[in-house]
Amino acid sequence: MRVKRMRRVALGTVVAAGAGLLAGTATASAEPVQAGQPGLDRFYHQRVGWKACGDKDLDAAGARCADVTVPLDYARPDGRTITVAISRLKATDTRNRRGVMLSNPGGPGGAGLGMMLDVRKAMTPEVSSRYDLIGMDPRGIGRSSPVDCGWPVGIMLRSAGIDRAGFDRTVRLQADLARRCAVTEGPDIRQITTRNTARDMDVVRGALGERKISYFGWSYGTYLGAVYTQMFPRQSDRVVLDSAVDPRRYGVGLFQAMGKPNEAALDDWANWAAARDAEYHLGRTGAEVRALVEDLIRGAAKSPIRIGDYRVDEHLLPMLAFNPLADPRHNAALATSVRRLADAADGKPVQPNPELEADLRFVTRPTPETQNSGQAAVLCGDVAAPRDPEWYWRNIQRNRAALPVFGGFAYGPSACASWAPPVEPPTEVRNAVPALIVQATGDTRTAYEEGVALHKAMTASRLVTLQDVRVHAVFGNYPNGCVENTVNTYFRDGVLPRADTTCREN
C-alpha cells in the first residue's frame, strides 16, 4: 500500500496481506541464490550507466537514473533478464560518506524512483549529505519491466458488499482479474515477488560497489526490508522500517487486521465531522455521521450513486473512505466527499470534489501509468490465499456486526484466491539484524500490533511508538520532532536507542 493517496497505491499495505490460516506452510529462511554462485557474477559486477531521469522533480534535484539488469528467475540466471530502474541523489559530504540507502514506498505496487525526494526533507543535513539516496521501482512496477494485465479497473481492492449477491459479484470480478493476468502476462508474472525484489536489491548493492546497504521503507516496504535482512543479513547496515507489517500475517491476515482500526478511525473522523456539523451537515453526533455513511453504502447497493461521470456502488464506497482515514489531515477532504456523495444520492446534480475525483479515477479508469495489477502480482505471488469462496463468506458474516463498513473489504476475496501457487515459500523473518521500527498506534493500514510483532521477530530491533496518532507512514510524511530526531540519530550514528521509545503529537 503507497501512503499519501490511494491512487499512488496505499495498502499497507493498500495496502498488503498475511495469514495465520497458512500455519503449517513451509517457510524459506535461507537465501539459496546469491553473489558468488555460478551465473550471478555478471549481474553483481555489471557497469551502471547513469543518465538523466526524465522526471521533472528528480532532474531538478540533480538526481541521476540507471537501469540495472537482473535475472527474471534467479534459479535460472542464464535465462531471460529484466531491468530494474533506480535513481540516485549522491552524497555531498564525501569525507563522511556512509554508503547507499535503498528505499521502498509501500504498496506493494508503489513506484519508488522519486521517494527519497520526500523522505530527505525529514532528514538532517548531516544524514542526507552522507548517503547516496537510492530510489527504486521494484520489478514489475513503474519503469521496471512493469506488469500490466489489462484490467478494466485500476486496483483489485474492493469491498465484497453487504449481501450474498454483492459477494458473488466480487468473486467473479476477482477471478476475472486473475485470469487476465495469467493470459496477458503468462508464467513470467510468478517471478514478480518480494523475495526476488530483495535479490534485485542485493544485485543493485553489488553493481554499485557497496559491501552493505542501509534501508528505509514505508508500509509494505517494511516487509521487503525485513525479508532482505533475513536473506542478506551480512549485507544489511542501518535499517528503518516505518509502519511495519507482521511477516507472519503477510497475506490475507494483514487485510483482516485492517478491519478493526479502520472502523475505529471512522468513528474518530465521524466525531470530528460532527463537531463541524454547521459546515458539513453530516450529523450532530458521531453516531449520526457513521449512520449516514452506513446508509449511503446500503443505498448504493440498491442503486449506485451517480456523481459526475461515475457510478459509486457498495463495493467502491468503503474504499473511498479507506484512503483518507489513513491520515487525519484528510479529515476535511473526506467530509466534503461524503457530503457530495450524500447530495448525489439525493438526486442533486453535484460533481466530485478534487480528492474524490482523483480516487474514483484511479479505482475505475486505469491508464498504463496508474493501473495497479503489479500489486496483485506481488501479493498473490508471495503467499497463497484460500481458494474456497465460502471461506471468505463465512468470515465476512462472522465479522459483519463488528465491522459494518470495512468487514467486506477486510475479509473479502481478492484476485489471490484464483492465482497460481507461489514459486517458492514465503520468508520466515526471525533474526538479530539491528533495525529501528516506527509505528503509530492509530495506523489504519498496518495495525500497531503488526509493528510490535515485527519487533519481536527482529530481536535486535527497537520500537518507536507514535502514541495516539492516526496516521500511516510517519518519517518523511507526518512531521513529528521526536520520531525525526530518533530516526536521524540512528542514521547518523548507527546506534539504536537503549530501549523502546514512545513519541507523542508535537
Number of distinct helices: 18
Contiguous runs where pLDDT drops below 50 for at least 5 residues: 1-32
Question: What is the approximate shape?
Answer: globular
- Terminal residue distance: 26 Å
Round the mean pLDDT to the nearest integer and report it. Answer: 93
Radius of gyration, whole Å: 22 Å
What summary fits the major beta sheet? 9 strands, mixed
What is the helix/strand order? HHEEEHHEHHEHEHHHEEHHHHHHEHEHE
Strand content: 5-15%
- The tally of domains stands at 1
- Which structural class is indicated by helix and strand composition? alpha/beta
Number of strands: 11
Helical residue percent band: 25-40%
Biggest β-sheet: strands ordered side by side in the sheet: 1-2-4-3-5-6-9-10-11
What assembly state would you assign to the polypeptide chains in this entry? Answer: single chain
